[in-house]
Fold each of these.
Amino acid sequence: MTDNSLDIRALHFSGIASRLRRLDASMLLWLALIAALAFLILNPVLRLIISSLQETDTGSFTLANYRTAYGNIRHLQSLLNSLELGVGVALLATCFAVPMAWAISRTDMPGKAFVRLMVFAAFVTPPYLGAIGWILLAGPNSGWLNKVWMALTGASHGIFNVYSMTGLILVISVTSFPYTFVFTSSALDLVSSEMEDAANILGARTLRTTLRITLPLVTPAIIGGIIISFLEAIALFGAPALIALPARFNVVSTQLWQFFEYPVRVEEAAAYSMPLLAITVLMFWIQRRILGRRGYTSVTGKGGERRMIALGPWRWVMLGYALLVCALSVFLPMLVLVQAAFAKAWGRGFSLDNLTLHNFYYLLFEQTQAKQTILNTFLYSAVTAFAAISLTLAIAYVVNRKLVPFSNVLAFLCMAPFVVPGIVLAIGFYAAYAPPPLALYGTATILILGFTTRFLPIAYTSSAAGLRSINPEMEEAVRILGGSRLLAIRKVLIPLLKKSLAGAWILVFIPATRELSSAIFLVGPNTRVISVMLFDLSEEGNFEVLAALGVILLVATVAIAGIGSKIIGRDFMLRRNS
Amino acid sequence: MSRLKLTGVSKRYGDFLAVDGIDLELQNGEFVSLLGPSGCGKTTTLRMIAGFVDPTLGTIEMDGKILSSPSGSVPPDRRQMSMIFQSYAIWPNMTVEQNVAFGLELRKISNAEVKRRVGEMLEVVHMSHLADRYPAELSGGQQQRVALARAIVIRPSVLLLDEPLSNLDATLREEMRFEIRRLHDEFQVTTVYVTHDQAEAMVTSDRIAVMNHGRIEQVDVPRALYNQPKTRFVAGFIGRTNFIEGVSDGHQVSFDGFALPRSAFERDVPAQGKAVFSVRPHSMRLSDVPPTAGNGGSAVGVVVLERAFLGEHWDYVVKPREGALTLRVTTSPMNDFPIGATAWLEFEPRQMALIV
Amino acid sequence: MFPIQRRDFIIGGSALLTLGAGRNALAQPAPSMTPHEKELFEAARKEGGELTWYTAQSDDITAQALGRSFEQLYPGIRVNVLRTTAQVAYQRVTQEIKASAIQCDVLSTTDIGHCVALKATGALEKYVPDNSGKVLDIYKNYDPDGYYFVNSAGMIGIGYNTSKVKEADAPKNWTDLLDPKWKDNIALGHPGFSGYVGTWTLTMRNQYGWDFFEKIAKNNPRIGRSINDTVTMLNAGECSIAGCGPVGTLLESVQKGNPLAMVYPTDGTVLIIAPSGIMKGCKHPAASRLFMEFLLSVGASQIWVDHFNETIRPEISPPKGAKSAKDLKTIRPTVEQITKGIPEVIKQWRETFGV
């Protein structure tokens, strides 16, 4: 009896000890991840909120910042302008993206591969570069489109004015509609044709079925796209700086820039950015409310095949629409940018004596910063992508396998930066880490950290999606044969995830190369990136060199993405291999 | 005039002939199943009836009007038909009530009338209390009912069902078989039902068309299919059976290990030559009583090779003492013959179907 | 790793330059260095061979040319040229001071008020270059204490596009800009970005009162950021008049073949005095001193003149076809007026123009 009880007690203790050991390891892991996320997200945002309530130089509590920020009618007007911009972009981007996504995903429209490629080109183009292109196209007196109009009709001035709210909305929409496009077409790919057949046989023709059945089924994707377009638009800095200023209005991001003029008023900037945060949180709450109890996925697994709807002559109409969007977002701006890149003076037009390679030559050999800037950009973006994917993969693993309690907190923190507009995040980072003790001002570190935080949500979503598709039984098979968890991860999980991780890497890398809004506050003289340099070049109106630099950026990005896609075997847009 | 008529309907995909010359007529209110294994062309045929696919050859007519032909077809939305899909295709973003109302709303019926008819229909399928639920909140059987309600409420000329029960578990399947038949009876809808499950077809249908490799092998009422299968395939597909080959010499038919008098057969067995029979496992009796003179001609001595007890019956594999032929026999639970035992197998020649 | 790569490119680039590929192929071999310069040169090499220069005094091309010239004269010292508008440069510098992380070595600005303010807060290093006594008299002695020195000057007049405006119709004086016939056709910069524009705005206010701007607002001018934006807008054909046209950039543009012309207003051309200074606590003090010598040297002046800017050394004559400051009637605000006035006009500008 005694022997038994001793044995039992011994077993009991060793059980507790091993549980404690496991608890320690997992606790440590949880603490490490939380610490990383706190450093990246919580601290800057908290510093931002605290700064908004502090007085400059003394640090004492005050509401004066809010008074200065919002007591001025021009500042309030900027906020309203931002909202108008956001709504306009959200609607226009949706109008562009949804019909195209539907046509590609569910109909027999011809030229799908080409249109997809153009959407990718639009995705790769930074909004500020698109803005430059449109300035060259639609400047009220000098834009090419206006010149053509004036030549054709003999009018004394053009009809397009890019320097307007409408112009700004158009310019931003044509580079942000790819997000909505990708979400919507991915969701549409999953809708079984039987859903449409059911409506069909009850008497509904194609259009009615599409509007009442097909599109409502992908409402979450469309709403997701709307929200992202809205948030992108209100957080952008580059395009508004180029267009809104000459158009004589400010938006929140350009207004924030002014708070950083001498004397630097971080506290007022922080106070001024609070509404952006509030608006973002509001958007997500609204999304939750709209989607509510309804389900959106097909409730059974079977019968999920997808057939293309035959549109007859209408498929040419759809193609025409798709090509129109492609023209607005890619053909026209690219045409003028390339023309400017090879021109001595872009205003002189398409003549042989206006051709030159000097702009590229100047960039690559005479401008001492350009080479370094280009290398910086790709280096920092690559490091950012690696950092973001590594961190989020670890977190996604912990969350998905439920290794620690409250793992959902980690997931929430990963998605939280979504809520903070890039420019606000940069200010927060600046407030938290630029001055001593860390004194990261002007270093590559603060830039990479800022970018990593900015792209955590994309990285996490991709990592989590990839992990979800792997059955945990694969690792369990390794462990039951005697391998450790780490071994299982190394030998089984990572190889299985290779393609998915590579895709996620590109999804972070590309936006990182074109990021301006958060870079503008975090770069130092040695850490300039292409986006900031393009912005600086635009300040002195040197469009030829600017266009050349833009062309270099685009060509390099497309090349890298192209190579990556070949390696992955499917394009970055998460399209299933059909 | 028949309600629905298929004449010489074929469908070719490149080199592959999915449906090969189907002739079928349905009378008003009839319930006909297309029964066959995967790939036999039954779903393709159904989709041609619905109008989602155009036939390569042949015509489909309803009430004498041509709906489908190689030169053109009336589109699905104008055929006044209804369809239940394998996945039910209930729209998850609409409530039960909205799903069922969809077809009615398209027909320009007043809101009040729509509400009334939807309410009635939901009563019929016992789903009134769940009218405001979303499909994600329903069980498989309930979703099935919603699909039925949605399809029937518009009073379709023809109701088409594409393997609707394959997603349900066994008990639910049984329940829903009866439910489908009940609804058919209540509304007298002409119905075409596609399935690979012969039990389903037998329970629900007035007639069954057995299909194989794109052709109809036999169309008949269930009893006739079972008892008088015309082809080897039909015999083997509907229920289990034994195929035995015999040679007729005018007086008797000789099989491997035994013989049966030709006169005992009900069907016209050829005077000379080969005759293949389908013998159902339960159409023979196993007994330990040797045959008397009266039925002597139809009994054979056998030895038990294998057996399995299934609760409602015994499954035996027996072999006549001479010859290599094995036969499956089903008996009542009381007939207990151990393996290796000898017994007498009594044939019922009238239940032996001659396969052409 | 990267410095070596860039080094190769710079050497390669320089080699191509000497083949005459660029306009500014004045690859002067290092003239004899004074002993003082030699001393600074050795020290600069020892401290790392690098210099970070924030400049708002010219466009990027001129700034790069100056940087490269210095590198050729003093091999082994790399110059990081960062060209921005004056307010942006000042913003960056003050950010660095606040973060106690000085990145800038030498600041060259177009707003002398910045230097005044920086000196007042002790942010500048005192150093009197040998060359400071050798410049033209009008550019001497702006800071007797020796914290900052004028190394560049520029002029602002009225520019116009000759293919759209005939010489006879072009404005002759600043007040002609108020004529309604120029509605929707005037290009301006923004004092909130550009030091040149800030000084110009202040000068106009001194001459004509702020009313001048209320009236010009009625003509709906197109507002950019840098003063060079006005030339861009003329080139593009977006506007036909540059309300505050920088002489240097405009004449350089004419040289490239653009149809532009300069008007020196009758009430006076605005003269911009642009100083430079060394940041206190910078990372490369020796190189900074050597660079200050260079900025005030004959070589630097030659480069300025090559780009149609003013020369500050008597040895160099003004560019062909351009008028020099000493031959024109010029107007400009005093240093105190600049220090106090530019922040004021920025505010007033925002009220009047909305941005």
Note: Confidence is low (pLDDT under 50) at residues 1-29 of chain C.
Amino acid sequence: MSIIEVKNLEFVYGKNTPYEKKALDDINFSINEGEFVGIVGSTGSGKSTLVQHINGLIKLQSGNIEVLDINLSDKKPNLKLLRQGVGMLFQYPEYQLFADTVLQDVMFGPTNFDMDKEEAKESAINAIKMVGLDYEAIKERSPLELSGGQKRRVAMAGVLAYKPQILVLDEPTAGLDPKGKKEMLDLITSLKGNMVKTIIMVSHNMDEISKYTSRVIVLNNSKLIFDTTPADLFYNNELEEIDLLTPHIVRIVKQLNQKGFNLSRNILTEQQLVNELKKTKAGSNE
Amino acid sequence: MEKEIIIKVENVDFAYRTNEGKTDALCDVSLDIKKGEFVVLLGHNGSGKSTLAKLLNGFLTPDSGKITVLGMDTTDESHIYDIRSKVGLVFQNPDNQLVASIIEDDIAFGPENLGVPREEIIRRVAWALDVVNMSSYRKHTPFKLSGGQKQRIAIAGILAMLPEVLVLDESTAMLDPKGRGEVLDTIKKLNKEKGVTVILITHYMDEAIDADKVVVLDKGKILTCGTPKEIFSDVETIFSTQLELPVATKTSYDLRLAGFDIPLVLTDEELVEALCQ
Amino acid sequence: MNRDITFGQYYPADSFIHKLDPRIKLLISIVFIVAIFLCEYYWAFLVCFLFLTIAVIVSKIPVRNIFKSIKAIIIILLVTVIINVLFSGRENPFFKWGFVSISWDGIQFAFFMAMRLIFLVLATSLVTLTTTPMTLTDGLESLISPLKLIKFPVHDVAIIMSIALRFIPTLMEEIDKIIMAQKARGAAFDEGNLLKKIKALIPILVPLFVSTFRIADELALALDARCYNATDARTKMKELKLSWRDFVASLFTLGMLAVVVLLKLGVIL
């Protein structure tokens, strides 16, 4: 069941000024409920612009978008309903915290979307626990005095608290160290099973994309150039040509295959590679 | 010929003191940096690596112990600007280091502050921009540059002061892969071709592959120190920190456990070669 | 949102005025402002008008851009004119009622007042249209540098101005990001009464303040790392140099001032 439908989407910044720049050129795709989609592209490819259309932050200029049955080409689309349905976490979301206490900040979203006070509070408490924070320890503290990692989780709780059906994450691991990245990605994966049905993750970390998403949309210079599975994308293309890196495992497999190995062109994780090499070795020992 | 030691860190302790109390950041840290070395300081967030960076050029002074830079003690106030102009520090956020609206003005800022004669400043600005490959941007405004470009400008701004040591405090953490590559290529070039001593502080192990020396910091202490090969091979120690081994290294480790007769490697290419033997 | 702003009104063109030294432009505009307040009667205003017209033509700036600045003060202009027409007439008023007293000299006074305001705005506009903010700052710094003798922190002030200019686009982008993030969480900024609208600004202002302090902290470290204040004997890479254009423009301006003064003193006409 398609919950996001994008047709012939185009967008130009600074129309009719000397600074005119085309950010999106004839973008077409649709996303079904339950998918975990990665959106990838080098800086300036248009991915932020695309993503900001999904919850109506950018006014539609040309083309058609329908999200959760709300048509953005209507004269007055119901943006409030749309934004409740599409939870969006921007890059470095910890920079948008403002309230006196963590609980108040997390309740901001639910309150804006007209959830009644008790429901909003309960939902906020639930969200705070879901992102792995100790509710009792943190509820009265000022969000501004927490550590970077904690702040980011509070920001995430603030989005989960209004129970969106689609979660859009813009570079959720930006600036985190390896442990922090892993924890964030595990958290996102746990949400998918559970709370949020559909996830869209914007990233330029190909290792993350290959491990966690089942479908990748690639933008380059305002155009959509690939819409396929991670394995197909990485194994059948030279991503360096569009300023993106191939994940290490894929590079290794490709080079091994060039040297005579016959490894499956579906290997995306280290574990899969080790297993397949073990099988090959066992096979050649017989 | 033994290379001369230009920075000596001796038994340094440092703790941050706030209204809430004391937070230990570094505990009995000792380290020697030799002239021309490419040193990588690895550590998770909170390991004390940024604190060490700020101690190296005198922003912070040790609670106990001593740091000597080119013979000068970092607690000696009379030498503080000598130390800062010789040990350049590039920070994490590419934006918040650039002070001028026009790039060439920003690069001139350091030498201007040092009272360098005008003709010499002009020469240095052109040279620094060329070293970081940004000469065509001299008259541009920093606002429209990518993160990698901005960091290169920041490096150029420090280079214009002709430092002997370049310390990069997580300068690649906020960049996309392309930007990271640009910055790493730039500092390797500075180290290999211009003889600048480089201290790269990061949590990405794959940035340490080409280092002369790798120092691993964990919870304020130096856990281990050695060549990349020595450090990466000590897999058990790395597992105990919060760092992540490069994919090729971890894969070679797992393959060895599965009975493959290959060495522990550092790069993808080395792994492929080892498996083809 | 992509704001490709060249902050300020600067309109790039290749003109005599654009090429003038910023210090000269600043001094000339001060002299011009003095002149317009010395004007008492039509001839003097005509001299100023001609001076301004020549400057505008030479600057190659489209008239449309020049008049935009007048749009900004249209309310003040109307208020000034109306107040003066109604209340400052003294001789032979043809309409009188309480404090209201309309006469020809009042109307004339209102007209002159309006002219002064228009000339003032046009002159200062011309300076900002033909000079980049950075160049203006350099010019200002140079002009106030004699204050160094009384220990006024001239260079610190100049750095503050230049850093502020550098960060304006960055901060505007930051504001955009914060607004978008809060809108995504359902924040509305145009609903409700005035009090509600003001409260709605808190989720924008608090993060903005916090960000600004964070930026300032990081910048302070960067300034230290680049040895700011290492020595009082700072040098400067870019020098402002006067050229023949500056002498010509200055002579022209002084000539205009002389005529206005002579008109005022009654020496001519």
Note: Chain B touches chain A through 31 residues (CB under 8 Å).
